[in-house]
Amino acid sequence: MTDDVTEWDFRGLRDTFLSRRYFRKFETITGHLVQVTGAMRAEGALTRPEVKVLSRYLLGLTYSFRALSMKYLMIGRDTGPVFGSMLMDKRDSGFPVGTELLVMANDAQQAGRHLGNMPSTEQYKDDMIRMIIGERAIPTRLQFALSQRLYYEELARGDLFWVRNDPECQWLGNPDEDRRRFLLHWAVYDSQVNLPVVYLMELEDTGRIALPKDEARWPRAQAHLMAQSLDALKLVTIARGFDEDFDDLHPKRLRRIHVGPMYSHAFTEQTGPLREVLEEAHAPEGQDWALAWTEEELESERAVEERSGWFSRVEREVFALDPFGGRGAETGATRTARSLILPQRVFQVLAEKNPPGFEDVRKFVVGPQGQVLRY
């Protein structure tokens, strides 16, 4: 990361109130996302197993942001040595930069040791009361120490969203006695775009041993998928590579879900119609945001048999690409769907301005009472 990139693309949240407002905003957004997945399930865009998986990743994202909010709770206060500031991507994503999650993963490995060397939460509070009453001073450094304990406690609880969330396998049923159907899911925090990305793959397994119990294939499959989890790779490239590397694993459907970018007039500097909408909305604190949600989907159209070696034949998938305007080769997907989650006030301004390019975008609007409606 060069100094120029840091200066122009990233923003350090160095003020206490600004930092707390930022994390409150994300806590609100991630809370609504679980409702959005429920709305997508109701309209048939997601299956029940997919909603369950996505909800888990979204809760993990909530826990990760909660941990970061504890870590940077006292930013801007006199806490002793310079502690730094939380870096966010102000131009492209609105999310924290990937290095924040990398450092957090390292801290999680040492959370138990830190907690073992720290006084308890009750002890910190007693010490703060004594300082306030006895010394008539603000216990800023004790508050900072307590915030770090709360940070490590969040890390120790686990179930957070990490930079790498390795593949897991869920059985969906058996199409016939020689085939098992599984849902594979994994996720990454893509450092190139500073966004959480979730992958869902439905596949059929014709191996002798079920995939998650196969000591030879399962570690190889996990390593292969994580190595291919790059935003720059098209879905068809990922699926074909997997199909060719595993003769008895047949990917039938692959989805990639980008959570973000987040747009906010107070925090980000993205260009385009949404920035103008947020500026004109004059939304109150907590409602000054919009979040993009993009789904890429690739489906297998049919399976064909190909020769493998001298005497055997293997099954290969033929994937259906977007037939409209030749865009399939460009996108590498069967279809791409864009959604936008935004508060009611921002949606009203968007509807009034009706900027080009938003007609085909699904809108999920958060009402005053927190309910989510599909428009």
List the helices and strands and how they pair.
Blueprint: H1 3-9, E1 10-13, H2 16-42, H3 48-71, E2 86-89, H4 98-109, H5 111-116, H6 121-135, H7 140-157, E3 164-176, E4 179-190, E5 195-205, H8 217-227, H9 235-245, E6 249-263, H10 273-281, E7 290-308, E8 312-320, H11 327-331, E9 335-343, H12 344-353, E10 362-366, E11 372-374
Parallel strand pairs: 9-10
Antiparallel strand pairs: 1-2, 3-4, 4-5, 5-6, 6-7, 7-8, 7-9, 10-11
> Taking Cα atoms only, what radius of gyration do you get, to the nearest Å?
24 Å
> How many strand units?
11
State the helix count: 12
The main sheet comes to: 9 strands, mixed
The assigned structural class equals alpha+beta
Helical residue percent band: 40-55%
Beta content comes to: 25-35%
- Report the mean per-residue pLDDT as an integer: 86
Shape: globular
SSE ordering: HEHHEHHHHEEEHHEHEEHEHEE
Q: Which consecutive residue ranges, at least 5 long each, have pLDDT under 50?
A: 1-7
Count of spatially separate domains? 2
Distance between the termini: 40 Å
Commentary on this structure:
This protein has helices spanning about 5-10, 15-40, 50-70, 100-110, 110-115, 120-135, 140-155, 215-225, 235-245, 275-280, 325-330, 345-355, and strands at about 10-15, 85-90, 165-175, 180-190, 195-205, 250-265, 290-310, 310-320, 335-345, 360-365, 370-375. By secondary structure, the protein is α+β, with helices and mostly antiparallel strands. The protein folds into two domains: about 5-155, no CATH class; about 165-375, no CATH class. Strands 3, 4, 5, 6, 7, 8, 9, 10 and 11 form a nine-stranded mixed sheet that branches. The chain has a two-stranded antiparallel ribbon with strand order 1-2. Helix 2 (about 15-40) runs antiparallel to helix 3, helix 3 runs antiparallel to helix 7 and helix 10 (about 275-280) packs across helix 12 (about 345-355). Residues about 1-5 have low confidence and may be disordered.
